[in-house]
Amino acid sequence: MPDPGERTIGVAVPIPDPYGRALQRSRASFGDPLAPSIPTHVTLVPPVRVAAGALAEIEGHLLAVAADERPFPILLRGTGTFRPISPVVFVSLAIGMSECENLERRIRRGPLDRTPSFPYHPHVTVAHHLSDDLLDRAFKELSEYEAEFPVRGFSLYEHGVDGVWRPQRDFAFGAGLSA
Predict the structure, then answer these.
(1) Chain centre to alpha carbon of residue 39
(2) Residues 156, 26, 129, CA angle at the centre, nearest 5°?
(3) Which of 6, 51, 76, 154 sits at 20 to 30 Å (Cα–Cα) from 142?
(4) pLDDT in tens, 63-122
(5) Contact in structure between 67 and 20 (CB atoms under 8 Å)
(6) How far apart are CA 52 and CA 24, in angstroms?
C-alpha cells in the first residue's frame, strides 16, 4: 500500500502527436499491457517516490532547469533493444541524444539527486516485458520508423493509484533566457 504522504513521479520529454499516439498504438499492437497507461515519452527521470511536501521544491528546480534551456530537435529513427539485460525494445534517437543527456544530468541534481539503476540512454520504449517473439516483432516492425519534431520543454508526470501516468505540469524552455 503506497504511503499517502508520498507520490511517484517521473520527468520526461513527451512525444507530440501524431507521433506519440502512433507509437502508443504500435506498443498496444505488440500486446504491451502498459501501452494505454503510459504516454509516449523520452524519460529524463524514471519513476521515483518522493515526499508530497517535496513537490514544490522539485517543481522550482525543474523551472530553473527549463529556464536555461533552448529548444532542440529530436529525430527518432529505427529501433534498438536492451536485451539481454532488460526485455525492452525502443525507438532510437538519431538526433537529440546529447541534449537529452545534458538535460537529464541537470535535472538529476538537487531534490532529484538519485543514483540511477542503469546508465542513462535516451530512447522511446515501444515494447517492455513481453515474450521474445513479440519483442522481435516490435524490433522488426519499427526498424524503419522515423519522425522529427522540436522539443520545447519537458513534463512532470505522476503515477496514479490506477496505474496511469498523467502529466502534472509542463516546463517550457527559455523562460530565463534574454532575447
Answers:
(1) 9
(2) 75
(3) 154
(4) 999 999 999 999 999 999 998 889 999 999 999 999 999 999 999 999 999 888 888 999
(5) no
(6) 29
Please tell me the distance from the alpha carbon of residue 179 to that of residue 174, in angstroms, as a whole number.
Answer: 10
Given this model, what pLDDT does residue 5 score?
A: 85
Instruction: Give the Å distances, CA to CA, from 123 to 76, 88, 129.
Output: 9, 10, 16
The residue assigned the cell 518522493 is 50
Please check whether residue 130 is in contact with residue 82, taking contact to mean a CB–CB distance below 8 angstroms: no
Name the nearest CA neighbour of 38 among 170, 169, 160, 172: 160
Q: Where are the beta strands (DSSP E) in the chain?
A: 6-14, 41-51, 72-81, 88-95, 123-128, 146-151, 153-159, 165-172
The pLDDT mean for the chain works out to 93
* Vertex 54 angle, CA 48 and 59, to 5°: 85
Lowest average pLDDT, out of 1-5, 30-34, 133-137, 151-155, goes to 1-5
Domains and CATH numbers, the chain: 6-172 (3.90.1140.10)
Q: Could you give the CA distance from residue 126 to residue 90 in angstroms, rounded to a whole number?
A: 5
% of the chain surpassing 70 pLDDT: 95
